[in-house]
């Protein structure tokens, strides 16, 4: 890509590729990273090799989003329903999360990434929980991209947790039920403080949300691609961003023209 054809956004460290309007990039991209198992199967490899390759795709995506000045990336790494997979696959994933986090933490710190893990972290292996706490604390003051990794995350569980927390405050006399509104409800979600995703990308061609960010995706533009997650690369991300920029977002209103 010729640099002369590209423009840089205020937060971007690299030029945004030609064909994209730097002023209309999504501020927050969410991604359902699906198709690791099928990627491996196509190559006669065990499913877990797809997960290993999927880590590379996530690193690529994070780097590109950060380079182009996208403010937040939220990735679905492990759902509350994924515990139902064979024990060996679940243990492989937990060990993979631990290894990758330990290996990448220094680079994340240096590149000003602020990492957070969204989900019920208590059932995760203790070593992973310790690493998560360490990575969260060490990057909390970073000023770059917000990188949210949804781990043991379920949209319904998140909504139930928020409802319970509000109910507890009401029962304790701290909160008037009549004062509960969308703002106070979303402040109890795991994504509190993060704006809602503008763009949801789902790989591997599945046309479903699979219990991801049920509240936050209310007005997200949805891009579904047949690309399997381990193959997700710059061209695939560009395709998603171009698709996003071709949409007219109305939020229930009417076109201005
Ligand atoms: C997504 O890939 C990764 C996780 C859910 C952890 P899959 O493992 O679901 O891959 P497919 O859908 O079987 O191809
Ligand atoms: C969604 O993928 C969850 C993650 C990407 C972590 P799944 O493979 O679990 O979703 P379904 O089963 O196809 O709906
Ligand atoms: Mg899947």
How many strand units?
A: 6
Cofactors and ligands: 3-methylbut-3-enyl trihydrogen diphosphate, magnesium ion
Q: How many structural domains does the protein architecture include?
A: 1
Arrangement of strands in the largest sheet: 3-4-2-1-5-6
Gap from first CA to last CA: 34 Å
Could you estimate the helical fraction of the residues in percent? 25-40%
Q: How much strand content do the residues show?
A: 5-15%
Topology, please?
Elements: E1 28-32, H1 36-42, H2 47-67, E2 72-79, H3 87-110, E3 114-118, H4 126-139, E4 146-153, H5 155-171, H6 182-186, E5 199-202, E6 221-224, H7 234-245
Parallel strand pairs: 1-2, 1-5, 2-4, 3-4, 5-6
Helix pairs in contact: 1-2, 2-3, 3-4
Bound molecules: 3-methylbut-3-enyl trihydrogen diphosphate (2 copies) and magnesium ion (MG).
Keywords:
257 residues, alpha/beta, Undecaprenyl pyrophosphate synthetase, six-stranded parallel beta sheet, 6 strands, 39% helix, 13% strand, globular, disordered N terminus, binds 3-methylbut-3-enyl trihydrogen diphosphate, binds magnesium ion
